[in-house]
């Protein structure tokens, strides 16, 4: 990890010295939570934490090339580099992006930033999809071609990626003085198609497929697909996404549904989600009731209460969350 941070810092300093158009964005999230985790209802876990800290320098290299780096400091993981990419805007219909970034998969994953989530946490099916897809922070390494057509009403994205992206060490491994080997020994393909026929309405789907080998030359195949329908306009916030996949011989599926209505700076939100891992057939479902308060453009408060229902389990583990978020952008 230290080697990664040092090299990325050197790259950033080089870019900084070349380009005068450097900006910064990021966020900080402070959490308070109370989580029941007991059978006899006598125990409870609670506490304060800095859940997420993001720092993302970005800028331009000329008129058509943009770049970005994003560092993540999360409570339950070591500091890491989420994004390192360059994007070449060939035209409105064609953009070439190379590096580490979110693949064109689930909208509820990294295609929706942590600062813009309707609920404090992502839906269980989204988190399961990220883990089963072999992604690191919902990111992959590769090259993507994307663009908009039909006057911006149709969006497409196609990405060729490494399949083994869950490892933090994304650098080539030095084998001898003269040879190197990339530890990501597989290939992945991601695709997305989305239509926006009217303002506020989005619908479409994605697919992903990869094949890789472990250290014992055993092949592992992953696949997933999904569809979504979003309507976000004026005071209304309606979202639904379905995801299904298979990792090895283990299948899973699930969905989430969000409904919100904004009244001035306050938005009550209700969400339902479920996740079914087919290896044991146990359905996991959440009902989340929450309130989002947009105090200022860069300050947001969130309060959630999550009712958890896990089949074949009597453990009570409902959760109360409160989140204070401060975000910034130097542009």
Itemize the secondary structure elements and their pairings.
Elements: H1 2-18, E1 22-36, E2 44-60, E3 65-74, E4 80-89, E5 95-101, H2 124-132, E6 140-149, E7 154-162, E8 173-174, E9 180-181, E10 187-195, E11 201-213, E12 219-233, E13 236-247, E14 250-261, E15 266-277, E16 284-296, E17 299-310, E18 319-329
Antiparallel strand pairs: 1-2, 1-18, 2-3, 3-4, 4-5, 5-6, 6-7, 7-10, 8-9, 10-11, 11-12, 12-13, 13-14, 14-15, 15-16, 16-17, 17-18
Q: What's this, in brief?
A:
With 331 residues, this protein is mainly beta.
Could you explain how this protein is built, in words?
It is a single chain. This protein is mainly beta and 331 residues long. It has helices at residues 2-18, 124-132; strands at 22-36, 44-60, 65-74, 80-89, 95-101, 140-149, 154-162, 173-174, 180-181, 187-195, 201-213, 219-233, 236-247, 250-261, 266-277, 284-296, 299-310, 319-329. Strand 1 and strand 2 (44-60) form a beta hairpin. The chain starts with a helix and ends with a strand. Residues 168-175 have low confidence and may be disordered.
Between the first and last Cα atoms, what is the distance in angstroms?
30 Å
Order of helices and strands: HEEEEEHEEEEEEEEEEEEE
Number of strands: 18
Largest sheet: 16 strands, antiparallel, barrel
Mean of residue pLDDT values: 83
What labels describe this entry?
single chain, 331 residues, mainly beta, 16-stranded antiparallel barrel, two-stranded antiparallel sheet, 2 helices, globular
């Amino acid at each position: 990890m230290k080697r990664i941070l040092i090299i990325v810092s050197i790259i950033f300093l080089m870019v900084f010295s070349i380009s005068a158009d450097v900006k910064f964005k990021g966020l900080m999230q402070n959490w308070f939570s109370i989580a029941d985790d007991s059978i006899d209802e006598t125990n409870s876990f609670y506490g304060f934490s800095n859940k997420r800290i993001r720092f993302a320098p970005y800028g331009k290299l000329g008129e058509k090339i943009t770049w970005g780096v994003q560092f993540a400091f999360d409570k339950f993981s070591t500091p890491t580099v989420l994004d390192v990419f360059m994007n070449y805007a060939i035209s409105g219909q064609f953009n070439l992006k190379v590096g580490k970034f979110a693949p064109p998969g689930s909208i509820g994953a990294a295609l929706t930033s942590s600062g813009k989530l309707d609920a404090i946490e992502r839906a269980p099916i989204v988190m399961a999809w990220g883990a089963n897809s072999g992604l690191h922070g919902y990111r992959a390494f590769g090259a993507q071609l994307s663009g908009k057509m039909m006057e911006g009403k149709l969006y497409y994205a196609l990405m060729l990626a490494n399949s083994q992206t869950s490892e933090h060490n994304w650098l080539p491994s030095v084998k001898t003085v003269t040879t190197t080997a990339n530890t990501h020994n597989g290939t992945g393909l991601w695709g997305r198609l989305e239509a926006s026929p009217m303002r506020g309405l989005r619908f479409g789907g994605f697919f992903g497929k990869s094949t890789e080998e472990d250290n014992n030359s055993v092949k592992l195949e992953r696949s997933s697909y999904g569809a979504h329908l979003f309507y976000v306009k004026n005071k209304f916030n309606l979202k639904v996404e379905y995801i299904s996949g298979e990792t090895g011989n283990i299948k899973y599926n699930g969905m989430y549904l969000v409904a919100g209505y904004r009244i001035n700076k306050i938005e009550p939100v209700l969400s339902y989600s479920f996740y079914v891992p087919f290896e044991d057939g146990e359905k996991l479902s959440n009902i989340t009731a929450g309130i989002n308060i947009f105090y200022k453009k860069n300050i947001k408060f969130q309060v959630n209460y999550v009712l958890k229902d896990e089949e074949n389990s009597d453990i009570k583990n409902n959760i109360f969350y409160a989140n204070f978020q401060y975000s910034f952008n130097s542009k």
